[in-house]
Amino acid sequence: MINSMTGFASREKDVPHLGKVSVEIRSSNHKFLEIVTHLPEGFLSLEDNIKKEIESQVKRGRITCVVSLVRTPKSNISINRQLVKEYIHTLREIKEQFHLEDGINLGVLINLPGVLSLGEAGIDKKDIWPHLSALIKQAVLELARARQKEGRALFSFLRKRAFNLKRHIKQIKMRFKKVSQIKAGRINNDEERISFLKDTDITEEIERLTFHISNFIRKMNKNSPVGKELDFIAQEMQREANTIGAKSFDALISGRVIEIKSQIEKMREQLQNIE
User: Fold this and answer.
1) Are 49 and 133 in contact (CB under 8 A)?
2) How confident is the model at residue 123 (pLDDT cuts 50, 70, 90)?
3) C-alpha angle with apex 187: 182 to 191, nearest 5 degrees?
4) What is the pLDDT of residue 120?
5) Is the pTM of this model over 0.90?
6) Which residues contact 107 (CB under 8 A, 6 or more apart)?
7) Based on the domain organization, do 191 and 89 belong to the same domain?
8) Nearest residue to 39 (alpha-carbon basis) of 60, 27, 25, 29
9) Is the pLDDT reported for residue 103 higher than 80?
């Protein structure tokens, strides 16, 4: 069954001692597989791991993965030990110079500017990866399901039009057999008759177009990325339809060809969205 290349998925989780981690994955049309990541500052080292998780489920399309982290407020108390030493040295000098009796105590030191500071706790990437990996896997599976769902809709659309093409081809084949005999019978000159039959014969084009349509339907049922193959087959279908139209001498056949070309064009538009 074919898959679409467009989809969206998101997952989030509150991780103890870290904060809320959220993952958003969007996919759109692209000739190849291209993965773009937007990660929190300092998380570039996780990019390759994230891409591997995505590549395990997605084979084609432009994938944008956004990872966000809202950290849980958590502070560390840091002591500027060098500054404390300088304060003690200076206080002792003041005490000796001015013959002060008061000693240096902890209460005095901790209230001096710059001795104590509150800093945000750092995050170890090893701690967050197991949680982030699980979220990425869940989001990628959700994205795959979304692409499969849209793929089923595209499958129905394309299958319906492929069978419509078969119906038009059948009508053209019957019509051509009838009108070519009538037209040829009205030509008295044998050489002109032979030339007419040769120049207007669309038997081979009809056979090739019929084969391409059947091949198109068969490829649609494969459980692998077939978007590029289907688009190539549709190009061949369009080429045969153009040749039939160029050789046509009958208004009804020309009308059918116009409808066939219109249907193929609509199919090719949708094929750009297939993995």
Assistant:
1) yes
2) low
3) 125
4) 46
5) no
6) none
7) no
8) 25
9) no
Residues paired with 274 in a beta bridge: 4
CA distances from 177 to 173, 206, 248 (A): 6, 12, 12
Query: Is residue 87 domain-shared with residue 38, that is, in the same domain?
Result: no
Residue type, 81: R
CA distance 33 to 55: 8
Domain that holds residue 64: 7-73+124-146
pLDDT tens-digit readout, 148-199: 999 999 999 999 999 999 999 999 999 999 999 898 888 988 899 899 999 9
Strands 33-38 and 61-71, by their bridges, are parallel
Q: Which residues, in sequence order, are CB contacts of 62 under 8 Å at separation 6+? A: 27, 28, 29, 30, 34, 36
Q: How far apart are CA 258 and CA 254, in angstroms?
A: 6
User: CATH number for the domain including 28?
Assistant: 3.30.230.10
pLDDT greater than 90 at residue 69: no
